[in-house]
Design brief:
The protein has one domain: Farnesyl Diphosphate Synthase (Orthogonal Bundle), CATH 1.10.600.10. Helix content is 71%, strand content 1%. It is built from 14 helices and two strands, in the order H-H-H-H-E-E-H-H-H-H-H-H-H-H-H-H. A hairpin with a 2-residue loop joins strand 1 and strand 2. The longest helix has 28 residues. One of its GO terms (cellular component) is cytoplasm.
């Protein structure tokens, strides 16, 4: 199976499951809130995080009986990723007007409802993941909480805010290690836990789970460096963004620090580390290998 077909088929499955949850909200969530949640969640996107979780599960040849756990984790990941985008777009954060090719949640529903929609998506994610009786779910809840919380994605956002403006101010530029730490937390944490959780749901050995986490960490760095490059050289319309890239906002980026060519080289190095981490996996892991190259070769 080629990567395009693989991505399309897994994305269709994920989209259908997300739509089911959105329909459920219509029955039990206040109307304005349910609409804001669904507007943000069903706006499209690559769905890379949930696809990565499913690819890791399949790459470890998980039994079909355990597939529901992997799918629930995949869906929970996408809800958390979406909540983070809703909050990142707010005027107090990145102040963006466009996301995935259309107005951001707060532009349509107002800032207060956008904040509540993000809060609701976050908590719904944990409700979905905790909804079965498989013992592994408790461990996955803990892993997801750490990846999404203060030591992971949220902590990365704080570091990002702390460093914003250095490019425009007379302060020393951040180091590569500092930018790498932001990316490891803000982007890499969810990607690392996606692949790790897929392996855990599949019942993989401790060594394989560790390898899949290392793969996700390197993939996350490669993906974010590629995003930094695309912010400079990419087509804003194709990317569904407002065109106000991170560098223009005074945010620390790899191209701003080392230039486009060196940033691309660093992305390739991260991709190679990701591939090396899963070198012992068999043919079932072929989509994971293709995803590593997709992370840096994509146009949006």
């Amino acid at each position: 199976m080629d990567l395009e077909t693989y991505l399309r088929e897994r994305k269709e499955r994920i989209e259908a499951t997300l739509a089911e949850h959105a329909r459920d909200w219509e029955e039990r969530v206040p109307e304005a809130l349910a609409k804001a949640m669904a507007y943000s969640l069903l706006a499209g996107g690559k769905r890379l995080r949930p696809i990565l979780c499913l690819a890791a599960f399949e790459g470890c040849e998980g039994a079909r009986v355990a597939e529901a756990v992997a799918l629930d984790f995949a869906v929970a990941l996408e809800l958390i990723h979406t909540y983070s985008l809703v909050h990142d777009d707010l005027p107090a954060m990145d102040d963006d007007d466009l996301r995935r090719g259309r107005p951001t949640c707060h532009k349509v529903f107002g800032e207060a409802t956008a904040i509540l929609a993000g809060d609701a998506l976050l908590t719904e994610a944990f409700g979905i993941l905790a909804g079965g009786d498989e013992p592994v779910r408790a461990k996955l809840v803990g892993l997801l909480a750490r990846a999404a919380g203060a030591e992971g994605m949220v902590g990365g956002q704080q570091l990002d805010l702390d460093m914003t403006g250095r490019l425009a101010a007379a302060e020393p530029l951040p180091s590569l290690d500092e930018i790498g730490e932001i990316h490891r937390r803000k982007t890499g944490a969810l990607l690392a836990v996606a692949s790790e959780a897929g392996a855990l749901a599949a019942g993989a050995s401790d060594a394989t789970v560790k390898a899949l986490r290392a793969y996700g960490e390197s993939l996350g760095l490669a993906f974010q460096i590629a995003d930094d490059v695309l912010d400079v050289v990419g087509d804003a319309a194709a990317m569904g963004k407002s065109g106000r890239g991170d560098e223009a906002k005074g945010k620390p980026t790899y191209p701003a620090l080392v230039g486009i060519d060196r940033a691309r080289a660093l992305a390739r190095e991260a991709r190679d580390r990701a591939l090396s981490a899963i070198g012992e996996l068999g043919e079932a892991a072929a989509p994971l290998r293709l995803l590593a190259s997709y992370a840096i070769d994509r146009a949006s």
